[in-house]
Structure formats: structure tokens, C-alpha cells
Amino acid sequence: MFLTRLVYASKKSPKFCSSDIDDILETARKHNGSLGITGLLCFNRQYFLQALEGPRSAINSTYYRITQDKRHSDMLILSYEEIRERNYGSWNMGYVPESSLTAPQTLKYSIGSEFDPFSMSSKSACMLLNDLSKTVPII
Predict the structure, then answer these.
(1) Which end of the chain is more exposed for a tag (fewer CB within 10 A), N or C?
(2) Cα–Cα–Cα angle for 9, 15, 37, rounded to 5 degrees
(3) Class of residue 87 by CB neighbours under 10 A (exposed 0-12, middle 13-18, buried 19+)
(4) Where would I find the H helices in 36-101?
(5) Residue 86: other Cβ atoms inside 10 A
């Protein structure tokens, strides 16, 4: 069994409501542990950036389920690779909401401090997630 990391970006759909982020996190945290999945989710009320780590088959089926979720639109895989170790092993699903603490890291990896993973290279988006996991409080 191989460890795999998938990083994707998506936009919130018109069907998304403000309480949906809590539901997304609760569902992910409930299911990911039993599947051996860990990860990190960033969200700024418009864009999602998420890393999923774990067994390849579990990552693939989880990502497929996310693509069917009507709260997401314009999904884009930024990175999919076999890994030797997890970056986000402390969380079944860690969460980083946009805040004044995230703006400096966002600026470090993109053209501005406004969080928009679609305007970042895949490498920069992955580096942003890794940097955030080490520098800001994870919910």
C-alpha cells in the first residue's frame, strides 16, 4: 500500500451556505480516521484548497465523493503524488480559515495577500499549505 497526497482547489458553488463548512469538516473528520486519511483544508468563503493524504484507493474514492458534492464547483487537481511521509498526520482534517494570520503566507506564495489558489502554481499552493500547517493555529 502506497501513501498518496492529492491537493486540489475548488470554488464554492451557488448552493453553498455559511453552515456548510462546519458540515464538511464534521463529515471529513468522522470518515477520514477510519480510512487512514489525514489532511488540511483552507477556505476563505470563496475558494477551497485541500490536501488529502493516505492510502491511494482511499484518496481516490474520497476525491471522487468530493467531486460529487454540489457545494464545490470548478474542481482542479493541483498535485497528485506518492509520498514517503505525511505532512498533515496530526489531523483527520485540519482547518485553516482565512485570517490576518494567513495573509503573510498567502502573499509569500502568490501575487497578492488575497487567497486564490487558482492564481497560484501547484507547487506554490502545496508550499502554502505546508507553511500554514507550521505557522498558524489549526482548527
Answers:
(1) N
(2) 40
(3) middle
(4) 56-67
(5) 17
Looking at the chain, list the stretches that DSSP marks H as alpha helix, in order from N- to C-terminal side. Answer: 20-35, 56-67, 103-109, 122-135
Name residue, grid cell 465523493: 65
Using one digit for the tens of pLDDT, what is the confidence trace for 63-95? Answer: 999 999 999 999 999 999 999 999 999 999 999
pLDDT tens-digit readout, 2-27: 899 999 999 999 999 989 999 999 99
Rounded CA gap, 22 and 39, in Å? 16
Give CA–CA dist 84/28, Å, rounded.
Answer: 23
User: Against a cut of 0.85, is the pTM above it?
Assistant: yes
Determine how many CB atoms are found less than 10 A away from the CB of residue 62. Answer: 19
Question: Cell 464547483, residue?
Answer: 73
Number of residues assigned to the chain: 139
Residue carrying C-alpha cell 482511499: 58
Report which of 16, 12, 8 is spatially closest to residue 41, judged by C-alpha positions: 8
